[in-house]
Structure formats: C-alpha cells, structure tokens
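Structure in, sequence out. Go:
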C-alpha cells in the first residue's frame, strides 16, 4: 500500500499536470471581445502618456540638445531600469535574493522613479501575470495581439487590479511601500527641480528646461517602451530554452535594452532565479550587479537556476 506521503506527492503531481494542460489549452482559446466597460480608454492614463510622449519629442528639438542632457539621460536610465529589474522585479516580486532593508528600499525607490505605478501595484500585477501568463485573464495577454501586450492594456480598465491584495500581503504591511504606492508620481517633482537648477546654474544649452525634458519625459518614455517590450516582444520573438505553458521567448536585443530581462523564457521557467541569462552567451547586466552586491556582502541567499544542457 502506498504511504500517505506518496499519495500526497502523487496528488500534487496530478494537480500540477492538470494545471499545465489547462494553461496550454488557454494559449489557443479564441479571445472574446472585451466587456463594454473595459473597451473605454481611461482619460487620466491616456492623457498622461500623450503628454509624456510629446515631452519626449520636444526634448529632441535642437534647442534642447546637449551632451549634458545625454549624460543625465544615461545616468537616470541606468538608475531607473536597474531599480525596476533589480529592485522591483528580482528582489521584491520574486525574492531571488535578500538584501539589507535600506538597500531594498533604495532600489525600490529607484524603480518607482519609472512611474509604472507604485511598488505594491507593480509587484501585484507582475505576480498575477506569472500565475496567468498569456491566458485570457492575463492583463497584458499576448493572445490579444502585440500592441495590446505592449501598452494598450494599461489604457483600459484592468480587472486584475481587484486581485492585487491576494498577491501583495508582504508589502502592504510596510508603511513605506504604502506611501510610495500612493504618492509615486510626486517623486518626479524634486527630481525635476534638481535638474532645472542644475541646468540653469551651469548654463547648459537649453537651460534647466532642457535637462528636465531629457531627464523626465524622454527617460520615462524610453524606460516605458523597454519595459513594455518585455511584455510584448519577448512573448513573440526569439527562442525557447524551456517548454513553459506560455508564449515566453528569449530575445537578445530586448535583453540588452532591459539589462537582462529579455531572457524571458528562462525567467518564466525559473521565476525565482536571480540570474536570467542561463547560457554562456546570454549576457545579463542585472545579474552582474547582483554578483557585485554579493561580493560586497550586500546580497545573500541568492537563488540560481541552471541551464540543463
């Protein structure tokens, strides 16, 4: 007679197999038309995105171009993308490693500068995505098309937001994260003031406004589209190392732009791994930063997956 432990393991394996089958079937299900309430554009989000894209184009006008603006853009791009990939994603959303509390909060603060909502909402939606990746109830379901997965989903009502509390109990107990989640937009104000002051006092071509345009709207638009490419392009283009029940792919050019997030099939196969580039040629910039933190004693209990080949 099988032991109770063997029976439980068998039941767990059967349940996992059934879930895998359901997920694979969901990939090919015809997508029904969105409910009327979800087809309407959200005026606040849509207007915000339009203003930012206009500001990004304005930054490229000859009057506002300068090497100082480019330096500001590159430094803030590095800080913001790393805040998203290293802080919000690999550290907080998946707990791929542990870090001192002050460092975790600093990284999350950097990630919140991306203006992709507050940390609680960001992490909650991301965890929801992993549970229902490319299913009809995935908020950026690639089955609805490349444009929907890229950014259109956020311009409409997001039903998954009603489920956030199920995925973020570890964050909602922290007053700091609750504050950031409510006031994340305000972080752009001191940054903008500092950039304007720097541009005016150093006589940068284009003045303070030029640095503000390069450091806020242009940076945000670039970071937005790089992040969105992980939702869209890496569910459509590239190769697969693992047979996951989703559409995830490894896309080298998205990996370069997003500091390693483009090795997306690897990530979906091993979501808790702090390293996404698992093969020798899959360069992962975020992982190199985690290695440096580990060498300094600032990252511990680092969780790593291995490529089986």
């Amino acid at each position: 007679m099988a032991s109770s432990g063997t029976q439980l393991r068998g039941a767990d394996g059967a349940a996992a197999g059934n879930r895998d089958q359901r997920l694979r079937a969901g990939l090919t299900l015809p997508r029904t038309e969105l409910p009327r309430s979800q087809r309407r554009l959200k005026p606040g989000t849509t207007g915000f995105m339009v203003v930012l894209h206009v500001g990004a184009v304005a930054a490229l006008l000859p009057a506002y171009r300068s090497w100082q603006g480019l330096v500001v853009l590159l430094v803030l791009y590095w800080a913001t993308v790393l805040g998203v990939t290293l802080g919000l994603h690999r550290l907080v959303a998946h707990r791929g490693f542990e870090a001192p509390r002050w460092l975790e909060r600093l990284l999350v603060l950097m990630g919140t500068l991306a203006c992709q909502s507050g940390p609680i909402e960001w992490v909650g939606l991301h965890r929801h995505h992993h549970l229902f990746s490319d299913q009809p109830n995935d908020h950026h379901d690639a089955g609805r098309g490349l444009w929907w997965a890229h950014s259109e989903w956020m311009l409409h009502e997001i039903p998954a937001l009603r489920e956030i509390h199920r995925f973020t109990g570890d964050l909602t107990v922290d007053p700091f994260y609750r504050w950031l989640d409510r006031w994340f937009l305000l972080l752009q104000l001191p940054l903008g003031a500092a950039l304007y002051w720097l541009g005016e006092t150093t006589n940068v071509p284009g003045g303070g406004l030029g640095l503000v345009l390069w450091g806020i709207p242009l940076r945000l638009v670039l970071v937005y589209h790089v992040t969105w490419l992980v939702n869209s392009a890496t569910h459509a283009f590239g190769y697969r190392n693992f047979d996951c029940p989703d559409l995830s792919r490894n896309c080298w050019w998205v990996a370069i732009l997003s500091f390693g997030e483009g090795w997306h099939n690897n990530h979906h196969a091993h979501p808790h791994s702090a390293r996404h580039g698992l093969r020798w040629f899959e360069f992962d910039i975020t992982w190199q930063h985690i290695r440096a933190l580990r060498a300094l004693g600032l990252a511990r209990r680092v969780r790593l997956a291995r490529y089986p080949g």
